[in-house]
User: What shape does this take?
Amino acid sequence: MRYDLTDLRLFCDVVEAGTITGGAARSALALAAASTRIRGMEDQLGAPLLIRSRQGVTPTPAGRTLLKHARTILAQSGRMREDLGAYAGGLSGEVRLLANTNALAEFLPEALSSFLARHPHVSVDLEERLSDEIVGLIAEGVGDVGIVAGTVDMGALETFPFRSDRFVVVTSADHPLAGRPSVAFSEVLAHDFVGLERSSSLHRFLAGKAAREGRPFRLRVQLRSFDGVCRLVECGVGIGVVPQTTAARAAKTMRLGVVDLADDWAQRELLICVRSMAELGLYARELVEELRAA
Assistant: This one.
């Protein structure tokens, strides 16, 4: 069997995306070219690597074995490229960073800008995910570094403290909840919400909490940023759940009510997680140190 690095990267991308179309897009390949490569890999092996259905693709037992080895080979290739780049005089590298919504919106921009300014030839592939998804993907080697809520089970991952924050409810200044010191999430579910897009990890997290309460999460408007959420909340369109740091910043320029969420899960201790610091590439290790010190 002769699989090159493009084949291995494509196969990993296809499995992670769940479709050949999505995997081709991630690998920057035309769909026809990606399909041909996957078929060629299966022909060389003499066995199917993917189970194809209308819902997408999933790896066969042979595909899962290939996926495990492909991730190891690609990680080693990345580390080799970084180590040899120093001798070539043109440092280059990539770090795959997975983060939940809170970390992505509130804390990463400043830390990442500092890291990227000091490493102009390094790129960071940043993806938003739910915390429990991130733990699994880091353990599998899909990502290099993750930032997650401290409430999830980390398994055998190495972790480091990152930030502390909490979710609060923001309302218009004249909203009935505005004068309350705190409120339970089950109570605010009686109101319409202004929130992030349904694909965001925070929306999925809150919708899951609402489902556990046996109540619908009535999302009236979807926006791309917490600042946008606060602006529509100020206008009385609905209420929102945002990080306390966001609410404090927005309250300086907007007429908002800020109400603490009484639920235990509202307190967010954010952690950096990696599979093993010793196994990380040079730039991934430096990014972890930058995040810890920021």
Observations:
- The first strand starts at residue 50 and ends at 53.
- The two ends are 46 Å apart (CA to CA).
